[in-house]
Amino acid sequence: MRCSQFRTLALAFAAVGVLAGSNPVVASVTYSNADVSLQVNGGEANNGTVPADGYFNYQLINVGVETTWSIDPLLILPTGQVINLANGLAGGFGSPVDNGGVAQSTAVISNELTVEANTTLNNLLASTTFNFITDGSLEGYKLVFYAENDIPPSDSNIAGTFGSLAGGDLILLQANFIPGGIVVGLLGGGLYNAQLSLYGSGLWTGFGTALESGDLSVLSSDGSNFVNGPGDLGLALGFDLSGTGGASLVVNYVAISVPVPEVGTFAYLAVAIGAFGGYRIFKRRSL
């Protein structure tokens, strides 16, 4: 099992190149405010879904907790090939570039397809728009946004949902109330030629490795295989791309700290749902 002490040591050793085969993030873009520090790595993590670091790292400053272990946008081609866009060494994004408060990362998938990600930080909300730039067809392409969260202690997280896929207001929630309370929310939708069609939660590491292999049976459209925990959990949203002339979708990630009187029960997710109300409005305006 992971622990915050192991992660701290691993990152420290990686920074000086002590860990054999490590690929420390060497070129990132960081945005911060009074509540959140967001480090956008693009493809500079150069690893898969199991090691620490990914497309971005999200830290709640007021409680000193980094809620993310590995954020991985997974592009699934019609052939079944999976490209982890957070892994620049395997065809993913290059280094991000700051463009007036927008961290831009680009991956050239083929002569016919380029994927661009634009990430911003607005208060607590880390929002990433993915643009799929092509003149050809996107039928059969999929994007899975996998968020392996690390809310300490990581092996006692619980997960749930609010809203629905059909209603267009689905929010995936992951929380830990030992001690205190931290809740992560993941939500998204299609902007053009893209549709949110699947979602899920699962245990580290099997959930992430299944997704990275292209196995989407760990997701569903109705939550029938959603893992509530407790356990070391991650969340995922799955999108279908279609049509010609490109596509676009957005994924929003947010974390909050909430005081709770007790621990370890889904009843207290209602506290978080109230706090997320404003972000549902933000989502509808954004989509």
Please, could you describe this protein's structure?
With 287 residues, the chain is mainly beta. The chain has one domain: Distorted Sandwich (Beta-galactosidase, Chain A, domain 5). The chain has four helices and 17 strands. It has helices at residues 4-15, 206-212, 269-275, 277-286, and strands at residues 29-32, 36-40, 56-60, 65-66, 68-76, 82-84, 97-98, 103-108, 114-122, 125-133, 142-149, 158-162, 171-176, 182-192, 194-203, 233-241, 247-257. The strands form three sheets. The protein has an eight-stranded antiparallel beta sheet, with helices on one face. It has a five-stranded antiparallel beta sheet with strand order 6-5-11-16-15, with helices on one face. Strands 1-2-3-4 form a four-stranded antiparallel beta sheet, with no helix packed on it. Strand 5 and strand 6 form a beta hairpin.
